[in-house]
Design a protein that fits this description.
Chain lengths: ~280, ~280
């Protein structure tokens, strides 16, 4: 029977740590501040933003959301970001995605000062990550790595398979796993022989958005399964991994819900603290 | 019997293309210029720099080498780079590696304006590469991809194994192979089961510097073998792949010498042209 990797428990632990970090900064009259840019009124984004706001409040991070109309012009949005870059009261900036179609997401992300890049999506920070600088990391990637840390899952020399190649999860995660000396394979929608790969994998991280893509017959005994997928089917939230079926065969597994998801907002808060510390202590 | 991937032939073809590019730029009074920074007098670097200088001259790229004493202070070197960043006559800057121990290689590479980054080692450019912008690419990575192009080697859905995880070859190459829809595995010195991986690979690119690491019994019939390794043993230059033994079993293979090596300087010249075009036409 697999160890269930408890996202809620680890998230609470991480939030406590962040709260301590913030307290220590406050003692030095430093007040970590996150500025979120929201464009339009996407209902899913609203829910996520409320979760962020609540956790920020709980851990003592100052959070302000700037809401812009869905038809805002790109130049205006970039101008706003530049003002936030120059604002010494703001330590971290994030743009809530997805953005409306008419906006160039890449240009907008690149407008953020890399030093204030809460999401870690700026190409400079992603390049740094590949070069071994691990202080600015996308929140989901930090969450996945936190599970390995917290549950003492050794990665050295292990075969790690990442399914999904986004710049938000799959690709930056590959750099972190390599850094930990895993042998890393990145699979995706064009991969022809997924089951051959999963059967050889000591560790599988899936982020494709395909409910129960990874089945019990595809994994090897004792595999570690980290499920980033969130698939809503008939009102139920399902992961990319067939959790119930894999539970007896895996050595460790994240449930969905209750696995990676809950950790992600706490990871974002941890990033805000790290950015604030870097800005103040230059570390 | 494998197709021998002829680096000299492809290099000559690429050099001709670059010469044409330069000619067209010259007609518009644009003179692509590469500035090489050399610190100290490393004999291996001297040889390589002479090859660069000769090819630059042949294709019409203006090249100037600035030589500094081995004990130059970091601040002075960075100051020089900043002057070159601001110099409109200079389109491309490269720092010949390795640098003397007392210099912080990362800081020096980051001092180069990413727009003039001939080697493509700046973290911003490496991050862009992972995000699918393929105009600024390390020369060896461009060389490897040029073989696939020139010999019509299809990558989609193929199992590609990269042995070696440097920021110069292995890691950025992984991003290019993913972009071409290969399933990519990155192996390295901590990988435990290399032969298991090589036996499954349709394409192997090796860059580890271990003579004849990849043997005939480790590859599958019809594998494509790209050998970036350069190992000098008893006066002989050997690749990472046991060329003679693998030749009958592979479907395509690069010799060493005469494979990836000769193509690399031509790839650098191509990069100088691309940087010049980007600076002038903003593409």
């Amino acid at each position: 029977m697999a160890t269930i990797l408890d996202g809620k428990k680890i998230a609470a632990k991480l939030a406590d740590k962040v709260k301590e970090n913030v307290k220590r900064l406050n003692e030095k009259k430093i007040y970590p501040t996150l500025c979120v840019i929201e464009v339009g009124n996407d209902p899913a984004s609203k829910i996520y933003l409320r979760v962020k706001k609540n956790l920020a409040k709980k851990v003592g991070i100052k959070e302000k959301t700037l809401n812009f109309p869905a038809d805002i012009e790109q130049a205006e949005l970039i101008n706003t970001i530049k003002q936030l870059n120059d604002d010494e009261q703001v330590n971290a900036i994030m743009v809530q995605l997805p953005l409306p179609e008419h906006l160039d997401q890449e240009k907008i992300i690149e407008a953020i000062d890399p030093k204030k890049d809460a999401d870690g999506f700026h190409p400079y920070n992603q390049g740094r990550l590949w070069q071994g600088k691990t202080d600015i990391v996308p929140a989901t990637v930090r969450s996945v790595m936190t599970f390995f840390d917290e549950y003492n899952i050794d990665l050295e020399g292990k075969n790690a398979l990442i399914i999904g190649r986004s710049i938000i999860v799959g690709k930056p995660l590959a750099s972190r796993l390599l850094e930990k000396n895993a042998t890393v394979t990145i699979a995706h929608s064009k991969t022809r022989n997924l089951a051959d790969l999963t059967k050889k994998a000591d560790i599988i991280v899936s982020d494709v958005g395909h409910a129960h893509l990874v089945t019990e017959s595809m994994i090897k005994l004792g595999a570690v399964l980290i499920d980033v997928g969130m698939n809503r089917e008939q009102g139920k939230l399902l992961g990319d991994v067939d959790y119930e079926a894999c539970l007896p065969k895996a050595s460790a597994i994240t449930p969905v819900p209750g696995g990676v998801g809950p950790l992600t907002v706490a990871s974002l808060m941890r990033q805000v603290v790290i950015l604030t510390e870097k800005q103040n202590y230059g570390r």
